[in-house]
Structures
1.
Amino acid sequence: MTESTSKLAEILLVEDNPADVRFTQEVLRENLINHVYVARDGEEALDFLHRRGKFTKVPKPDLILLDLNLPKVDGRQVLAEVRATEELKSIPVAIMTSSRDHEDIVRAQTMQATCYITKPIDPEEFLNALMESGGKFRVVDSRPVEDPVG
Amino acid sequence: MAPDPQASPVTVLLVEDDEDDYLITRDLLSDVEGVAYEMTWVNNYDQGLAEMKRQVHDIYLVDFRLAGCDGLDLIREARAADCTGPIILLTGQGDRQTDIKAMRAGASDFITKGRIDSSQLERSIRYAIEQHRLRGELQQQAEALARSNAELQQFAYVASHDLQEPLRTISSYVQLLARRYKSQLDDDANEFIGFAVEGTRRMQNLINDLLSLSRVGTRGRELEPTDCNLALDDSLANLGAALRESGAEITRDPLPVVMADKPQLTQLFQNLVGNAIKFQSGDAPKIHIFCRPNGKECVVGVRDNGIGIDPRHAERIFQVFQRLHDREKYPGTGIGLAICKKIVERHGGRIWVESQPGEGAAFLFNLSQAEGAEKQ
């Protein structure tokens, strides 16, 4: 880990799709972010955040990357609980999704997500957005904007 | 002709408070040749309604005057209680007013007692039963169509939505391979990867557009008074970069307030203006958005100075996956105008093109103006 990423040292990635987990880890690694913890479902994510069960010795993450459709406890519930918990509510949460639906974006904003990023993630883009946004909601669309017309 | 012994008798419910009239009706039916009737007689409103709700008779004959009650009310109440069977209203004195009221209440026919013979009564019953049967068939077909339509829409949505995930995985990893191992691969390998990436990109565009197309039907909002000017503003803002790069010159008439789903109206303008930018002839695009009010309706159009369209393709271009040009020169999925058509049709309007090759094109559609906004 280098000095330049010290502010985003610990990332909790909450994602159930193994291909997406690995891909996100790989691109984060390309950007010298190595401290990525992975939770495979919402329940595990909450255990991690509350440092329960096997997660008693984990750090408080500096950023949560959250998929919305998760087994057991879904991403929306995880986010709601983070925002409702005093020690956790200041953690930036970036929602990762494949949906570019206007409604989904608005919903993410209402749920007090910090940032909304479309998969596949472009780490540089979203880290910049997080830095700049200073807690304000941002949409990061890593896919090129396509011609609207066929 | 004797009654057909094979045919089951036609079951009749007569709701009639006058016994003499009951006897007359019974005699008329028994005089009918070739058909057997099995009649049940009830002499008051409540019993009539109870029997009608059971829906076991082939035909209902209802008297207009039922000892202080109104036969029309009985018909209305039976219809409201989902009694769908054919009903004929019998009355002592025929007048056109009552006839029309009976029709509106849901009666199949209206007969003046004392003025008809048995063959006329038989004919009226036969027509009422047949029309009822046809209406039932039509309704079943309509329901089956609506069901299959809803299923298809759902299928299109789910299929395109679920196709995205694996495609995204393929495309992400192919790009990761390219990024990480480019220096270790030869030119051929890099070219192959390029084709794979391009293929996934095109498929992603197709899926996105198919999703947009299916959302027009499944995710539409209620139509409400919507200022076309604001929808156009939004669409131009969304086209920002493409507009600037093309150097397009946009002119616009003041547009009316119409009944619309605003996000869809925005998408409609965006697709049409986007096309006007894309299909340019070499000069900087000149695009004019205009409006022709026409009573409660208005025709809105987007005119350009682009390459134009041969009128023989005027219909085809609105179908899904129809492209007139090669993908290299004018990229796109061939779904944009199909989305436009679906949006306009969902708004109860029509979309068409007026154009000649080399002379630009005007895409026009009509929409209903919002109440009180006709004279804008």
2.
Amino acid sequence: MKESRHAGGKKYMPTMHDSKIPVVDFQAKAHELLPDNASYDSCLSCGLCSSGCPASGFYGMDPRRFIRMAMLGMNEELSNTPWIWTCTLCQRCAYVCPMNIDVSALVGFARGNWPKDKKPQGIVRSCEAQMRFASTSAMGVMPDDFVEIIEDAVDELREEDERFKTIQAPMDKKGAFFFVNQNSREPATEPEELAPLWKIFDYVGADWTYASKGWAAENFCMFTGDDVTWKEMIRQRVDAVNELGCKVWVNTECGHSFYTLWKGVERFGLQADFEAESLISYYAQWIREAKLPVNSDWNTKGLKFTVQDPCQLVRKSIGDPVADDLRYVAKQLVGAENFIDMQPCRSANYCCGGGGGFLQAGMNEQRLAYGKRKFDQITVTGADYVLTPCHNCHSQITDLCDHNGGGYRVIHFWTLICLSLGILGKNERRYLGPDLADIGLPKDAL
Amino acid sequence: MNGPDPAGTKVFETEVLIIGGGVTGTGVMRDLAFRGIHCLLIDRKDLNAGASGGNHGLLHSGGRYASSDLETAAECRTEAEILKYTARECIDECGGIFAAVEGDDPDFATRFPDHCARAGIPCHSLSPAEARALEPSLSDKVFAAYAVDDATIDPFHITLGNVNHAQQLTDSVYLPHTEIVDFEIVNGTITSVLCLDTHTADSVRIRAKQVVNAAGAWAMNVAKLAGCADVAVLYAKGTLIISNARISNGVINRLRSPGDGDILVPGGTVSLLGTTSDTLDNLDDVRPTIEEVDRLLREGIVMVPGLEHTRFIRAFSGVRPLLQAPDADVDGRKTSRAFRLFDHEDQGLSNFATLVGGKLTTYRLMAEKTGDLVARRMGNMSPCKTATTRLPSGEGDRWTEPGFTPRYWYNRNDPTDAILCECEMVPHSAVDAITADAVGAENHMTLRAIAVRSRIGKGSCQGSFCAARVTSHLYDRDLYERCEGRGHMRDFMSERFKGVRPVLWGKQMPQMELAEALHCGLMGLDLQGPRDDENGDGTT
């Protein structure tokens, strides 16, 4: 395993350009960016960071080595190591560090220090796409396109299912309580995945809106390590929410899009006239309030489920309260006896390897090697399905299953909520297996 | 010394026996080997076990002694220039500053450039702002400052280099852990020396034409054992503390009459603050104390305020073997740093010489004078070559250099070469090279011996992890057997802890809590005697 990690190192050539990476004084930078009692000087060399880091071993690096090399003045090596693109900035190292040292702060800085032409171009291009239109979409979905796609999808749903003939997907509705963002993947490539969430809002009678501007739930600019573009993305989104006067910005089932705004507002001192909340917390609240009367009666086969805690949402942002909500929702949906946690989990969960721009970085060999730890964790649970409220986790864990010959499937919560409520359409089941293809469909649809 | 040797006595023949594996003894070894002479070097412990391992690693410009000891100051200047050429790879020409802060004697500061000029020491005046631009850690209360050509030298590297070169030149030999028991003297000539191998308890007899006593602080004891009462050494204990990271770009000296805590010297990736000076009556149990550390910091903070919040990882002590003239002051600080070579002819011995005093910076000159005497006695007319010939650069000597091993490992990019010491990034291959080829390499080599030849145990964790990992590795390599590794680990950690104990506060405290959890809580080494059950079968 370790050997293949190193071999990958020699092969990795981001581009053929010859621009130079400036040499940074990492020890001084750590001193500047981190609190004195949690700077690199406090490191005990204990290695808790490295032993829990799935990127340990790539290019001969791991988090502890990053710190030690900084302390030993190996600035040229640290400035140039491509390892920083295999670190997903998941902060598990910081979470388990007895001295609270955050290695990722300097990894993020090191990313920003690379000239643009040297950075993994997939991440750079995603950021550039976001910068291009007011939608801030990394997949280049323009504001007008978004409005049209949503309108079309609403029309289709109204026509298809009598029960939803008056359903709304409000756009730019001033004064709506909830501002809901939208990952670009659904409008761009799988519009049939849009409706389940609308059905849930409809079910609970939520006062919500999309916006034609600043709606996208992704931010690859943050992963390029460039604070200027990170800030610009968040500024546009914050402005969009402020403009509509919404009380709560609800982040869809996506991990880093929560972190990037929640953290960005604080980091860049932006004026946000709203609260940032996770959709998961509302799922849990609506279930507790019986607004979403879900149950596990449908799970007659006793299918087993596990949950992937998105690092960006759980460890890096809200912490264990949202991990508790994830489990509460999951158990209500599948039956407590059918829920099996991975170990470790919650804030100590391992990153799957889909975050930090790794999926876009073009380093597939390393990304799949990184994710092997997650694959093994899932396999041990014996779960048939992995529930995750994160698009990057979703893609990566699906990839891991294909690559390693696993037997599980990966789904979003909205799919299962609608399934349990009996409102999941036939075409909204692309991620479900044959075992759930017909469950909860109206009789005439069968 | 009468009667036959005990059975199993090992016998060695050589031209010159040198006692003491410090920088002076190894310097003499190389000097003589250059003249084609075969040497045998012994040390009761190991290389750099005395003052050569317990110092700042400062290659003096001479500025330190310019105001009090002109002869030493001038010697330092000349010798430092020679070493910068001949031992380039052991030296960091970082430069130095002398700075006076509020409260220091302004007259002393004013006279400094004249004193330097008289000793021929280059020195130029800096404004306080210029001084602080060069050394941002310097106090803003600086009122006078001068730049000098101070440098630093890795005392371990130079010692290893000397022995290595002597081995190459004349197949000279180094024997560690070999202690003198007695001199056999016939008609005013030492005919042989009886020693004890303290690791194996074997007797060792060494026959040599000439014997050089370079035992440093122990030189008086060795001379007495040979019946010479003319050597008087003043023991001046000095304590230093090591920071976790490098604090200054170059050497920072306090511009005042030498006192405690007035030199801050970079040592590659760390910095060393020193020193204290306290005269001792004997050499038993020399270890740094909390009181000394407090004294160092109290003074050091005045010059470099950031020291107040600096993480220190260890303190250590050395004993300066100062030359005590019959009428001399007993204050070590005021005693001359001059050296003296005793030929002991007035003591009735014709082939014995003892070297006392001097400094790390002047060791080569001391070795040259000794080499001249010994060679002359042997009828060897070859001139000294150490002032002009460079020390060969061998990768095998460079493991002690801070920052060398991590780069070596990183550039090799060999995934099978696992790191054993995480703090200093020392991999398998380095430990293998040391146990196979280093000066004094042997089976059952102690962790301390490996540490003298590398950066093992010198990082912030002070051996917590590498002690166990290197030990495990040596079992894998069949260099350790049965339960001996536990004893080696315990010895090593006990030695490190002597130095860690006086700096246990702040960030180093949790580090040692972790060390205790590992070595006492997990491995139970505190419940085991120093060398208990070495054979693993209940016997010792």
